[in-house]
Amino acid sequence: MNAQDRVPALVVDGLSVSHGAQALVRDVSFAIPAGGVLTLLGESGSGKSLLAQAIMGNLPAGLRCAGTIAIGGERTGAADQRSRHAGWGRRVALLPQEPWLALDPTMKVRRQVAETYELVSHPARGHEEDDWRSAKVNARTLADRALASLGLGDAADKYPFMISGGMAQRVAFLATHAAGAPLMIVDEPTKGLDADRRGEVAGLLRAARARGISLLCITHDIWLARAIGGELGVMLDGEMIERGDTADVLAAPKHDYTRRLVAADPANWSARPAAAGAPQRRIVATIDGVGKSFGSQRLFDGIGAHIEVGEIVAVTGPSGSGKTTFGNIVLGLLKPDAGRVTRATGLAPAAFQKIYQDPAAAFAPRASLRRSLMDLVRLHRLDWNVLDGLLARMRLAPALLDRLPGQVSGGELQRIALARVLLMKPALIFADEPTSRLDPVMQQEVVSLLADHARENACAVLLVTHDAEIVQAVADRRIDLQS
C-alpha cells in the first residue's frame, strides 16, 4: 500500500469547543497522515490544548464540543468523549502540559516508566507466573535504558517531588512514549528544558516519526517546530488562521499574527539597558557560601552574591543543577547544608515571593481564581483596581477569574500567577521559568512587564529560564551554579 493510500492517523472535522455561550474553539478541521506531523503554534488561550483534550475525550467539566474526530479511521462524534477512552495508550497517547500532574507522587521514577512497558508487553491472562516475572524484569531493564538515554539514570529511585521540573517533563515523556501508540499528542514537550535537553526531546520525536508514529505537537517553541518539520498550524482566538509546510510558513508567514509570532522569538530580542548603578542602591539579600546536597548528590557549593534592588539576576545551570532549590533557599523555603542567606532589615515576611514553574501548584484546585485573588486582596489590604490593570496589560479577560485553575490554559494561569505576585509589590521575586507556557509574543510582553516592575518598584528578580537568549536580553548579571 502506498503512503498516500494509508488511513490518516487523525482527521478532525469541524471541531468546536464552548463554555456556555462562549466559543473557545471554532470550526477547526485538519488531517495528519500516517507518520506525519502537525505542530500547533499560537498564543496561550488560543485553543491548542483544548483541541488535544477534545481529541482525547478529556475536556474539563463544563465544556462542550461538536464536530467529528477519526483516529486511525475510527470515526466518532466529538461530543461522545467516552467512546475514545478505550483507545488511550493503545491508539493515541497524550503527554500533558503539566508534568507534575502527569506523574504519580507516590511512585518512584523507574516504576512509573516501567509500569507502562509492563502493561504493554505483559503476557495474556492465564500464562505462567514465570512469564509474568520475566515481563516485569524486562520492563525494568527497558525503563532503566530509557531513563539513561535522557540523562535520568540518577533519578530512577527518586519520587517526582525530588526532581526538577525539567526532569519531571522528561520522565512524563518517557512514560507516555513507552506505550507505543501510533498517534502521540505532545503538549509543550520542551518547556522548562535547557538547550541540550530540548535537542534530545526533538531527537526522540524525530525517531518516533521515523518508526511511523504520527505526531500532533503543541508548542510555543519555534525552534522545536523547525526541528521536527512536517506541517505547521497557527491558532488565534480559537481559529486556525494559517497552515502549511513548517519551513514555508516560518520563512514567509502570510498572516500578520504569524509574522509577529516569528519576530518575537527570543533570538530576535534587543538587550534591555542594564540597571543603573548608584551609591544609594540597597542590598535585598546577601548569599554567603551557600551549598546544598540531596543524599550523596551535591547540587552546588560555595555560592555567594549580593542581590540589589531593581536588578535582574539570572540563575543558570543545566537541568537538575539545583536552580529551583537555590531559589527556594533564598526565599527561606529550604535550609542550606552550608552557608547562609541574610535578608535586608525591616522587610515583611511576605516581601519575598515566588512565581512557580508549574502555576497549578500555586492555586487551590477547587476554588475559583477570583476567590483565591479576593482572599489575597482582603488578607493584605491590597487594591483590586491595580490587579485589574495588571490583568489587562497581560490581555487576560476578567471572565477567566470565574473558572477553576484547571479550566484555563497553562499560559493563562501562568500570567494570573504573575499578576498575583506583582500585586504584592515584593522586595524580591524568584521567577522560576515564568514564561515557559507562553507564546513568543506574550513571552516578550510578560518579560518586559516583569523587568519594568523591577525597575519601577525597586524589586529584585532572581530569574530562572532555560532560554539563553532571554538571559542575554534582560539579565543584569548571572549566578552560574555550575561555575
CATH superfamily of the largest domain: P-loop containing nucleotide triphosphate hydrolases
Which word captures the global form? globular
CATH second-level architecture of the largest domain: 3-Layer(aba) Sandwich
State the distance separating the first and last CA atoms. Answer: 56 Å
Tell how many strands the DSSP assignment holds. Answer: 18
State the low-pLDDT regions, or none. Answer: none
Biggest sheet strand line-up:
6-7-8-3-9-10
Helix run count: 15
Total domain count? 2
Return the structural class.
Answer: alpha/beta
The amount of helix comes to: 25-40%
Main β sheet profile? 6 strands, mixed
Structure, explained:
This protein is of the alpha/beta class and 483 residues long. The chain folds into two domains: 3-266, 3-Layer(aba) Sandwich (Rossmann fold); 283-480, Rossmann fold (3-Layer(aba) Sandwich). It has helices spanning 48-56, 99-102, 109-121, 129-149, 165-177, 195-210, 222-228, 246-251, 256-263, 323-331, 369-380, 384-393, 410-423, 440-456, 468-474, and strands spanning 10-19, 22-32, 37-42, 63-71, 74-77, 92-95, 183-187, 214-218, 231-236, 239-245, 283-294, 297-308, 312-316, 338-343, 352-355, 428-432, 460-464, 477-480. The longest helix is centred in the N-terminal third of the chain and has 21 residues, at 129-149. The chain is globular. The mean pLDDT is 88.
